UniProtKB/TrEMBL annotation:
CDD domains: AdoMet_MTases. Pfam families: Methyltransf_3. SUPFAM superfamilies: S-adenosyl-L-methionine-dependent methyltransferases. PROSITE patterns: SAM_OMT_I. It comes from the Bacteria. GO terms for molecular function: O-methyltransferase activity; S-adenosylmethionine-dependent methyltransferase activity. GO terms for biological process: methylation. Keywords: Methyltransferase, S-adenosyl-L-methionine, Transferase. This is Methyltransferase.
């Protein structure tokens, strides 16, 4: 058996990507345009994008909420996973990022399914109508509990909630690490484990983006409680 190293894990990720995801010009152009504009290289890995796509299909999602658009890479995956009359509402704080995402979405042929909302998510979320079938959270980690609370408020029993970057290279399990993005991630995981509105698990991931993790939850039949007693 091959020894587990980061290089070996990345080779396996490359194999999974080539075998199960393959070449996709629209997705690759989306990342290339994002990189050319010097946006942060923090989009999900291809295998994780495919996971989002499959979760949308498996759950039968018609209305998807994405918190954190960046260059639109994950948005394309999500939009492809919903029906022709479905909608992805995606929130992006930076207008320049949203413009790049819009161009990539149009080129991928899914622009008609996507509603980009500009602004800070904590300010945009209260303006949304709700009843989302899938929520993908991939924005500032310091606000994960706020985003999870709104996911519960805007979803319904059975809504799938996905939170990216929950492993932080193992730092979330180290109480000595107190960086805000780590403590925010940790608080989100604690919320997923204690808030009765969620039933959740998390998986470690090692891919071309490094060592991290993803949490996956479903909203329970108490998801209509307000969450006012739960500290964000």
């Amino acid at each position: 058996m091959t020894e587990l190293t980061l290089d070996a894990a990345r080779r396996l990720d490359a194999y999974f990507t080539a075998t199960l995801v393959g070449h996709d010009e629209a997705l690759e152009r989306a990342v290339a345009d994002q990189d050319a504009a010097h946006l942060p290289s923090i989009e999900v890995a291809p295998v994780n994008g495919k996971l989002l796509h499959l979760l949308a299909r498996i759950s039968g999602a018609r209305r998807v909420l994405e918190i954190g658009t960046l260059g639109g890479y994950s948005t394309i995956w999500l939009a492809r996973g919903i029906p022709a009359d479905g909608t992805v509402t995606t929130i992006e704080a930076e207008p320049a990022h949203a413009a790049i995402a819009r161009a990539s979405l149009e080129r991928a042929g899914v622009g008609h399914k996507v509603d980009i909302r500009l602004g800070r998510a904590a300010e945009v979320l209260p303006t949304l109508a709700g009843d989302y079938d899938l929520v993908f959270i991939d924005a500032d980690k310091e606000s994960n509990t706020i985003y999870l609370d709104w996911a519960a408020r805007l979803g319904h029993p059975g809504t799938v909630v996905v939170v990216d970057n929950v492993g932080r290279g193992g730092d979330v399990a180290d109480p000595e690490v107190t960086a805000s993005h780590v403590t925010g991630t940790r608080a989100g995981l604690v919320m997923l484990g204690t808030d009765p509105r969620f039933d959740a698990t998390a998986l470690q991931t090692i891919d071309r983006k490094g060592w991290d993790g993803v949490a996956i939850a479903v909203l329970t039949d108490v998801a209509d409680v307000t969450g006012d007693d739960i500290a964000p």
